[in-house]
Amino acid sequence: MIKAYLTLLRPHQYLKNLVLILPAFFALRINEWEVIWRTIIGIIGFSLVASAVYILNDYLDQEEDRKHPVKKHRPIASGIVSGKNALVLMGILLVLFVPMFYWLDKHAFYLISSYVFMNVLYTFKLKHIPILDIFIIALGFLIRIATGATIATPDIPLTMWIVLMIFLGALFLALAKRRDDVLLAAEGNKVRKSIDGYNLEFINGAMVIMASVLVVSYLSYTISPEVQQKFGSEYLYLTVAFVLLGVLRYMQITFVEEKSGSPTKVFLQDSFLQLTILGWVIAFVILIYL
What we know:
Helices cover 72% and strands 0% of the residues. By secondary structure, the protein is mainly α. Helix 3 packs parallel to helix 8.
């Protein structure tokens, strides 16, 4: 039973909340103890608030989830956890961890509150509106990175480049997830209403556009004079190789292997992507510190 409740929290999705680290990383403040512990607390708190949102989503979607080949095994859909108990757990998480952000920073509290409000709207209505549904997902990532900046580096504003790249990357991943839904619908498993607004041609084209703009944005970021001056290196553009590797590998997983239904599970299970991300981090650190 404990395992079922842990599954209900969707801990594998916590990987998304590591983006809260990025403001401190790009601000060169990742080695400061106060920044570290505030970021860690922020990640934990955001993860558990997000779990509350997932519980609400599972509760409302339990009938649709029972028709899904994978989601039918979720605790509420399968009947292992009752809807009443799930809602109680959701309430406990919200009461405990949303106010915690006010202690960290009142602006972080406003951000996490807007995240909850936006996702409640998403769960009840917005996820059924094609295109708007993936934009809401991308906005969730912008709220994450803004929360990380507010908590850890409030004196350093987010650059337009980071905001742009996070937004484009999130749209790219959301489109890949919708592509999996389109494939399921083609097999007779229509798992969400918004899928009527998508087809493979549209999603494939949109993903190519997002991938192209994302890579160009990252390259523009690395060669911009202010970034080169900030990091003291003219060779950051070399790290674009890892960005290209990562994007192409994810497109391969999506278009060739057709396994893009859960982006977090893709990142957790694919050693190629993991090594690519590790390579990018190592290369970036070497270029700015050596």
